[in-house]
Design brief:
The protein has twelve helices and 16 strands. By secondary structure, it is of the alpha/beta class. A nine-stranded mixed β-sheet has the order 10-9-8-7-13-6-14-16-15. Strands 2-1-3-4-5 form a five-stranded mixed β-sheet. The longest helix has 13 residues.
Length: about 375
């Protein structure tokens, strides 16, 4: 199952709205086939693993297949994987996590068992759910999985007191950020980040898929010569705004940007309304990379599901130096976002701390 989880990464950035899934077929103590769902519309992991068996000249009859997510049993862009498993004569199926999709939701397992196949469930379930958490969250809630990401020093600064922020972390950590961008359907920043850094907000490595770029711009003040605007016909760009004046919107529409009107809250874009609208249009994941103002707004709105904190072994100091989450802040420690399921990864000299948000205090989701 660990191998199935590893190869599932082949589909990162390309399978949405489907889940990342990996499959490994074992017979007589040998791996005879493996496969992943690599692109939406292409073969699912189980069928790719069976195809790999054929390419290797191996017979899967009587074998065991390990699959990270319950095999599908409905006709979509591809035929049901349960049928492929039955036709191949697989004798045993080991499943990592169940599929909450109403078209599956235990039906795939039941079909296999009814056909006499031995099915075991819950193998490395936590790890398999982590692998497919974008899909699982979206299916279960209808909202995109929202990841808050920031890079800071060991004393909690995202820039020096001068505003200089390049670079807080090293090359390995920055490369990992681009991998995360590739996994997410969209990336979100505030107007302040566009004005300060004029970022491209793309995923910079070979074969990467660029996320949809979303700028929270309450009153449409994004410069028309900003990179996210001038490249909007190459990489989709959404300006989320409260500005309804069509004459103010027109210049951006002419460049290829989409202007998305959302509700206003406290004079700014209502992030809860924005996330709801994004979910309705099929955006299953959003990476927030804005500064401390947007990070606080997201925390206060209760929309954050995961936190990715990249921490560099540096001390910057400075009373006025910016921190990852600014704004007013929560009034007591007990009111803050409660984090759980902490995972620590070494990236060169830097470390990444991943945490799930356990408790949302102010959100209405």
């Amino acid at each position: 199952m660990q191998r199935a989880i590893e190869i599932a990464a082949r589909g990162e950035g390309r399978v949405s709205p489907n889940p990342l899934v990996g499959a490994v077929i074992v017979k007589n103590g040998r791996v005879i086939g493996e496969g992943a769902h690599e692109r939406c519309g292409d073969l699912h992991a189980e069928r790719n693993a069976l195809k790999d068996c054929q390419a290797r000249g191996e017979d899967p009859f009587g074998a065991t297949i390990y699959v990270t997510l319950e095999p599908c049993c409905h006709q979509g862009r591809q035929p049901p994987c349960t049928s492929a498993i039955l036709e191949a004569g697989i004798a045993r199926v080991v499943v990592g996590a169940g599929d909450p999709n109403p078209q599956v939701a235990g039906k795939g397992i039941r079909i296999l068992r009814d056909a006499g196949i031995k099915v075991e469930t819950g193998c490395m379930e936590h790890e398999c759910r982590r692998l497919a958490r974008i899909f699982l969250h979206y299916v279960e809630t209808g909202h995109p999985l929202v990841v808050l990401k920031y890079a800071m020093t060991m004393d909690g600064k995202i820039a020096a007191y001068t505003g200089e922020s390049k670079w807080i972390t090293g090359k390995k950590a920055r490369a990992h950020v681009h991998r995360v961008r590739n996994r997410c359907k969209a990336i979100m920043v505030g107007l302040g980040t566009v004005l300060a850094d004029d970022p491209m907000l793309n995923a910079r490595f070979e074969s990467a898929v660029d996320p949809i770029r979303i700028v929270c711009d309450s009153h449409l003040r994004t410069p028309l010569d900003a990179k996210v605007v001038t490249t909007a016909r190459e990489i989709p760009t959404i300006l989320a705004t409260c500005e309804k004046d069509s004459s103010r919107q027109a210049p951006y529409l002419e460049t290829g940007c989409e202007v998305l009107c959302v509700a206003e809250k406290g004079g700014r874009v209502d992030l809860a309304d924005l996330v709801m609208k994004l979910g309705r249009r099929g955006v299953d994941s959003v990476l927030i990379e804005g500064g401390g103002t947007l990070a606080w707004a997201a925390a206060e709105a209760g929309i954050v599901d995961l936190v990715y904190a990249y921490i560099a072994p540096k001390i910057l100091g400075g009373k006025t130096a910016k921190t990852p989450v600014e704004g007013q802040g929560f009034s007591t420690p007990g009111m803050g976002l409660q984090l759980a399921d902490v995972r620590v990864t070494r990236l060169g000299e830097d470390i990444l701390i991943e945490s799930e948000v356990l408790k949302r205090v102010h959100g209405n989701r």
